[in-house]
Amino acid sequence: MKLPSSRSRQASIAIEINPLDAAGSATKKRGKVIKSASELDQFNRILANQKLMELARRIDEINPKQKKLEQ
Q1: Are 21 and 29 within 8 A, CB to CB?
Q2: Which residues, including other chains, have CB under 8 Å from residue 44's CB and lie 6 or more apart?
Q3: Minimal CA–CA distance to 71: which of 27, 24, 8?
Q4: What is the average per-residue pLDDT within 30-46?
Q5: How far apart are CA 29 and CA 1, in angstroms?
Q6: What is the maximal distance between C-alpha atoms in the chain?
Q7: Which of 27, 63, 54, 53 is CA-nearest to residue 42?
């Protein structure tokens, strides 16, 4: 997913995780709320996937480096 730029950061690319429902369709939700142990298990399996880790590393390589905001 492409994230637009804002006043505090440049445009970048991110990963949106959208698990499938029982029928095999994408849930099409953002900011998923976990309602059961089976949903948590599904997310854990997705997050443990090596292909996802490789994708995240490649995104790190192409996204612009963000300046750390002073707090």
Answers
A1: no
A2: none
A3: 8
A4: 78
A5: 14
A6: 46
A7: 27
